[in-house]
Design brief:
418 residues, globular, binds nicotinamide-adenine-dinucleotide
Length: 418
């Protein structure tokens, strides 16, 4: 949890309890579904370039394995702790089940500010963390992917470390890899493409034209920048974006391609981009826009600011950006929220495609990947929307009911060992 009140773990537990109540599951099943199967803490000693020894804390949580191997991202962020990783792992479990892909949920992290490390330090830290986890990860066990503060190169180092330890190249141990070592076409933009597809499905239901839709995106990283780009390309008017240093606003519209180029060329931040007004992250979240896409960190919309959020549609690119308390305020106000486990499910969908391609050693074209992504996203959205209407619940509750029911069903079918 970064901002406001209500931790990510509390929010995840409230959401699970809500689904459990709707499904009428008993206390034993509720406990089984809430409790992580494995929570691992590792120390990651890092020799800095200047000879100083730093001992960092790393985590990997495998929340549930009932439907398949564990799957989930790896985060490098200073506020990362075991509770946050547990929440993110739980959301992965429901997300994989909702998307209909045969994985359980996991997440990992190291409490570190990666921007303060050199590339060599990041490589040593990543390889040491991966080495600690070698017995627990693998294509059939647990498959990490990029998240906040990690990227394709991080995945390449993990894949190489794991492969070196096991004595053979194991491309399927991670997803979100570079194409040269078994990555998938379309993976880099998959989460954002899924956000755009989910946003457009919601706009259709609200009877709103993309051309009449103004959008603000918080977070200009892997998910936020391309979500801004795809929404702009599909006709929406992007009026504000932000990163950790602040935001920019122009009511006439921003050009995401130019902003992405500016940041990639070492601009470091969107703040100060010519022709824009500078705003804070808090101001961005409260802009009078038609659609808000939080794509940074959890807890940014909380009880402290929920009643000032004006956007009638929130599409959650980030995991857990709205706390459980804020969710009650917003849904009470009639705000439509496309929840994280649906809206950003495109990332894990294409990670699944990447894993399938690695196992088969047979690779698909970008068009094939994007077509199958669209199919999965649209099916998941349809199922959630239909259940929300049938039960008169929010999209978040409906999404959780579907995900949790599928995992509970897998537990019942497998039975309990011993
Ligand atoms: P990233 O590290 O690439 O980008 C994060 C962005 O958020 C950066 O622009 C950073 O400056 C900004 N940011 C960080 N702290 C901030 C703060 N306090 N206020 C405002 N902005 C801040 O990370 P990402 O991979 O784009 O992930 C973003 C979110 O999307 C996370 O919640 C992540 O779990 C979720 N997600 C990512 C993927 C994926 O494929 N990468 C998939 C599903 C969900």
């Amino acid at each position: 949890m970064i901002l406001g009140t209500g931790s990510a773990w509390d929010t995840a537990c409230v959401q699970l309890a809500d689904a459990v109540r709707h499904l009428g599951l008993d206390d034993g099943m509720h406990d089984l579904l809430r409790t992580p199967r494995r929570s691992i803490s590792v120390s990651v000693p890092l020799l800095r370039d200047d000879g100083q020894l730093l001992v960092l804390s790393g985590y990997r949580v495998q929340h549930n394995l009932a439907r398949g191997p564990a799957k989930g991202g790896l985060r490098y962020h200073p506020s990362c702790d075991l509770d946050e990783v547990k929440a993110l792992a739980m959301w992965m479990t429901w997300k994989c089940a909702l998307m209909g892909i045969p994985y359980g949920g996991a997440k990992g992290g190291i409490a570190v500010e990666p921007g303060l490390l050199s590339r060599q330090e990041r490589e040593r830290m990543t390889r040491r963390y991966a080495a600690e986890l070698v017995p627990l990860i693998g294509p059939d066990k647990d498959i990490p992917a990029p998240d906040v503060g990690t990227d394709e190169q991080t995945m390449a180092w993990i894949m190489d470390t794991y492969s070196t330890h096991t004595g053979h190249t194991a491309a399927g141990v991670v997803t979100g890899k570079p194409l040269s070592i078994g990555g998938s076409a379309g993976r880099a933009g998959a989460t954002s493409r899924g956000v755009q597809l989910a946003a457009f499905a919601a706009l259709r239901e609200l009877d709103k034209e993309p051309r009449e839709t103004t959008v603000a995106v918080q977070g200009f990283g892997k998910v936020g920048a391309l979500a801004a780009q795809y929404l702009h390309d599909a006709g929406c008017r992007l009026v504000a974006v932000s990163d950790v240093k602040g935001g920019v606003h122009n009511s006439a519209g921003l050009n995401p391609t130019a902003l992405i180029r500016h940041v990639a060329r070492g601009g470091d931040t969107v703040v100060g981009y010519p022709g824009t007004d500078t705003i804070t992250n808090a101001e961005l979240l409260e802009l009078d826009v038609d659609m808000l896409v939080p794509a940074a960190l959890e807890g940014v919309i909380n009880i402290g600011n929920a009643d000032r959020v004006k956007a009638p549609l929130i599409v959650e690119g980030a995991n857990g950006p709205v706390t459980a308390e804020a969710d009650r305020v917003l849904t009470g106000n009639g705000t439509v929220i496309v929840p994280d486990i649906l809206a950003n499910g495109g990332g894990v969908a294409v990670s699944y495609f990447e894993w399938v391609q690695d196992i088969q050693a047979y690779f698909w074209s970008e068009d094939q990947v994007n077509d199958r992504l669209r199919e999965l996203m649209q099916r998941a959205y349809r199922e959630v929307s239909a259940l929300a209407r049938e039960r008169r619940v929010s999209l978040r509750t409906a999404a959780h009911i579907i995900g949790v029911a599928r995992v509970a069903e897998a537990h019942r079918t497998r039975g309990l060992y011993p």
